[in-house]
């Protein structure tokens, strides 16, 4: 790899380098594999992870919360419809607006949901 070693990100010092500002470490796994999903920081410090594909079969139906203090994911009740490639925005007031994207085997969606922590 020109200008670096295999496994390094361009412009990012290796872990343990005195000039690095942070180190990536592994935490617990999500309750379901998912991509392209959203991850939204909530005002209380937790992270809402929503939607995405769970496998080749289709989109994930649910969401989960990551608790930084315990480094664990907790599943939330299932969403009424499948979604991926959506947006998740935290407007003033602390609720998360999850909007648009795609559903399993369908074109773009007009659906929107509000998550209330």
Keyword list:
single chain, 117 residues, mainly beta, four-stranded antiparallel sheet
Report on the architecture of this protein.
The structure is a single chain. With 117 residues, the protein is mainly β. The protein has a domain at 38-115. Helices cover 0% and strands 28% of the residues. It contains no helices and 9 strands. The N and C termini lie far apart (45 Å).
In brief, what are we looking at here?
The chain is mostly beta strands.
List the helices and strands and how they pair.
Elements: E1 38-41, E2 47-50, E3 53-55, E4 58-59, E5 63-67, E6 72-75, E7 87-89, E8 96-99, E9 112-115
Antiparallel strand pairs: 1-2, 2-5, 3-4, 5-6, 7-8, 8-9
Shape: globular
- The level of helicity is under 10%
Number of strands: 9
SSE string, helix = H, strand = E?
Answer: EEEEEEEEE
Give the count of helical stretches.
0
Structural class: mainly beta
Mean pLDDT: 81
The share of residues in extended strands comes to: 25-35%
Overall radius of gyration:
17 Å
Strands across the major sheet, in which order?
A: 1-2-5-6
Unreliable stretches covering 5 or more consecutive residues: 1-9
Biggest β-sheet: count, sense, barrel?
A: 4 strands, antiparallel
Distance from first to last alpha carbon: 45 Å
């Amino acid at each position: 790899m020109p200008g670096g070693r295999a496994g390094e990100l361009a412009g990012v010092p290796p872990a343990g380098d005195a000039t690095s500002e942070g180190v990536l470490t592994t935490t617990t796994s999500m309750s379901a594999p998912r991509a392209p999903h959203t991850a939204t920081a909530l005002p209380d410090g937790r992270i809402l992870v929503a939607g995405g594909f769970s496998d080749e079969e289709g989109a994930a139906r649910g969401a989960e919360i990551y608790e930084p203090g315990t480094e664990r994911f907790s599943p939330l009740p299932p969403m009424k419809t499948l979604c991926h490639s959506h947006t998740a925005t935290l407007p003033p007031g602390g609720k998360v607006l999850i909007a648009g994207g795609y559903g399993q085997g369908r074109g773009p969606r007009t659906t929107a949901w509000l998550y209330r922590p």
